[in-house]
Write a structure and sequence with these properties.
4-stranded mixed sheet; kinase activity; alpha/beta; 13 strands; disordered C terminus; 9-stranded mixed sheet; UDP-N-acetylmuramoyl-L-alanine:D-glutamate ligase
């Protein structure tokens, strides 16, 4: 009797091992067949940009010199990804109506795939952007379907090997934030156990994100990509004391302040950190390493909107292609420099990967980074 029981247990263990090995082989086959893509969980809306001499007082009237509708939000990150030759997917919510139709048409033209939920009962949102004679921009927002997700919005999202999942700060302030929190829970706190990269582009609205969600974002240890203002806001939220004594002077204080900011913030986050600084390029810190300044490519711009989305999209695309973080940032610096020279209605237009790689002066055959290394 005991012999039969031992034989049965042995057979069950062998069958379990066989199933496990078969699952491993299937995963390896899927990984080989899978082309890494960049998947954005950000929100997308329509920007209506108007040039005015000045904004009228309440109840007043003014005439816009020009009006340019353009797709905004995380679309510009995905557009940059697509232009850099990497599959781009949007997992956020799109509505049904005039603005949503503009978004879907842009996706069709640019090869962006919508893999997220659709709302048939409400249109996507829009923003009025007034650009006045003093160079200031004033925003008026109407939120739509993009802000009406819930904790189940990203339930079906299963990133594959080498994918890059992009999260923007515009998704952290409304009902859709619950879906981000659920996804972060599934992503776990050990980047080495994820087969994909996780990139967070926080925007300066990070100051409005609730403490619980911010804690979950930090614990996930993603790659953080910020401009200096966003990085400073994040440091303040995390209680990091920064020495502003000799900040941002032309005579070298800027470099010292950027190094100090990246070192202090990166050490607290225990995660890769990129802090952009326009024509000066970006400062990069990886866990346990020194701060690296990746020089920019100064040029004369013709843009009125930031090239930050182009930089983030280009960097994500290069990570999906297997480049190291430092090389991806270098190529993104080059892409942003080219983009601000060829803006459309003030919006920077990202170049192809070949153009950016050529300006960056790197070997196009050199990608070697493993997606699990972060």
């Amino acid at each position: 009797m005991l012999g039969k029981l031992i034989a049965r247990r042995k057979a069950e263990a062998e069958e379990e091992l066989r199933r496990h090995e078969e699952e491993e082989r299937n995963r390896e086959r899927e990984a080989k067949d899978h082309t890494p893509s960049v998947i954005s969980l950000g929100q997308v809306w329509v920007d209506i940009m108007m040039d005015v001499d000045s904004l009228p007082a309440s109840g007043g009237f003014t005439v816009a010199d020009a009006a340019h509708p353009a797709i905004g939000g995380s679309y510009r990150v995905l557009d940059a990804v697509s232009r850099m030759g990497v599959p781009a997917e949007h997992a956020g919510v799109i509505g049904n109506g005039v603005w949503a139709s503009m978004i879907r048409k842009a996706y069709e033209e640019d090869g962006i795939v919508h893999v997220g939920p659709s709302r048939l009962d409400v249109d996507s949102g829009f923003r009025l952007v007034f650009h006045d004679g003093d160079g200031r921009k004033t925003f008026v927002a109407h939120y739509g379907a993009e802000a009406r997700g819930d904790e189940h919005t990203f339930d079906t999202l299963e990133p594959g090997a080498g994918d890059v999942v992009h999260i923007s700060g515009n998704t952290l302030l409304d009902h859709t934030a619950a879906g981000i929190d659920e996804f972060m829970d599934r992503a776990g706190s050990d980047p080495r156990k994820r087969p994909y990269h996780l990139v967070i582009n926080p925007t300066n609205t990070l100051k409005l994100v609730n403490d619980h969600l911010l804690e979950d974002l930090v614990l996930a240890r993603p790659i953080w990509s910020c401009n200096r203002q966003e990085a400073t806001t994040l440091a303040e939220r995390l209680g990091i004391a920064l020495d502003e004594g000799d900040t941002l002077t032309v005579g070298g204080g800027f470099d010292k302040a950027m190094n100090a900011l990246c070192d202090a913030l990166g050490n607290t986050l225990r995660a890769p950190l990129i802090v952009r600084a326009g024509a000066r390029g970006a400062w990069v810190r990886e866990p346990g390493g020194d701060v690296l300044h990746v020089e920019g490519y100064p040029t004369k711009g013709v843009h009125t909107r930031s090239a930050g989305s182009c930089h983030t999209g280009a960097m994500c695309a290069m990570l999906a292609k297997g480049w190291s973080l430092a090389d991806a940032v270098n190529i993104a610096n080059a892409a942003a420099s080219i983009a601000i020279q060829r803006s459309h209605a003030g919006v920077p237009v990202c170049p192809s990967a070949d153009e950016a790689i050529q300006l960056a002066g790197v070997d196009p055959e050199s990608p070697s980074e493993s997606p699990s290394s972060h």
